[in-house]
Amino acid sequence: MSNYDPNHAVLIRGTEDIYWVGFSDPKAGFSNNPYLVIDGDEAILIDPGSRAEEHYNTVRRKVEEVIDPRKIKYMIVHHQDPDLCASLPLFEEIVAPDIKIIAQIRTSLFVPYYGTKSEVIAVDDGDTLELSSGRKFIFITTPYVHFAGSMVTYDTKTKTLFSSDIFAAFSFNWTLYADENEYYIEAFKAFTEPYIGCKEPLLSALEKASKVPIERICPQHGSVIDKDIEKYILAAKNLDVGAWL
């Protein structure tokens, strides 16, 4: 078991600047995993999460443990679900006043319905975000996994794939890292097989992701995958999706 305290922000192992600032939600049976990337005087908050008071306050407290929130210049939203982005208007009150929200084109249409006031930058497949340091993030669209406007984000510096709901899992016995949970693949199957309607979009998303070298996968739910990555990719390819059809 890795040495970390889930009651506080956790520096993702193998990195110097990516923090897990999420929480396990035993009532729902899965974790919510916002991530904070700090790059000098700039920071990115990825999928900031729910606006439920207990959820938002937890994420905010963990962010404030490691950075002044006013250094957060970007918030990335991988799709429009409220567990990922309903807290956007709350974070707008404490982050940089010129914050930019980044979302795929179709998702960008829904973001303002949460009451956001900031500029929403709509991105498409292969678009990039370059920070002042030169660090680049690549946006990879993953349509219909599970929303038409879904995407994932790839950090070229750390070779980290922020995979949204791809590789997500139920987490009744939550651990931050997948290798600490011998049942993670079964939990991954239980979450994903009813969640994605058909195989073609999933295989397309996995094919796109395979074009970049991946050292870790950081999903929005479940656990971080940074060992035996090919094992989890193979499990994803073999999912029997559309289980409720």
Describe this structure in words.
This protein has a single domain, classed as Ribonuclease Z/Hydroxyacylglutathione hydrolase-like (Metallo-beta-lactamase, Chain A). It contains seven helices and 14 strands. It has helices spanning 53-66, 82-85, 88-92, 105-110, 184-192, 199-209, 229-237, and strands at 10-11, 18-20, 23-25, 30-32, 35-39, 42-46, 72-77, 100-104, 119-123, 128-130, 136-141, 151-155, 160-164, 216-219.
The tally of beta strands, per DSSP, is: 14
Shape: globular
CATH fold naming: Metallo-beta-lactamase, Chain A
Q: Uncertain segments of ≥5 residues (pLDDT<50)? A: none
Q: Supply the CATH architecture.
A: 4-Layer Sandwich
Domain module count: 1
Please identify the oligomeric state: single chain
SSE pattern: EEEEEEHEHHEHEEEEEHHEH
Major sheet: order of its strands? Answer: 1-2-5-6-7-8-9
Summarize the structure.
This protein has 245 residues and is an alpha/beta fold. The chain is 24% helix and 24% strand. The protein has helices at residues 53-66, 82-85, 88-92, 105-110, 184-192, 199-209, 229-237; strands spanning 10-11, 18-20, 23-25, 30-32, 35-39, 42-46, 72-77, 100-104, 119-123, 128-130, 136-141, 151-155, 160-164, 216-219.
List keywords for this structure.
7-stranded mixed beta sheet; single chain; globular; Metallo-beta-lactamase, Chain A; 5-stranded mixed beta sheet; alpha/beta; 245 residues
Structural topology:
Layout: E1 10-11, E2 18-20, E3 23-25, E4 30-32, E5 35-39, E6 42-46, H1 53-66, E7 72-77, H2 82-85, H3 88-92, E8 100-104, H4 105-110, E9 119-123, E10 128-130, E11 136-141, E12 151-155, E13 160-164, H5 184-192, H6 199-209, E14 216-219, H7 229-237
Parallel strand pairs: 6-7, 7-8, 8-9, 13-14
Antiparallel strand pairs: 1-2, 2-5, 3-4, 5-6, 10-11, 11-12, 12-13
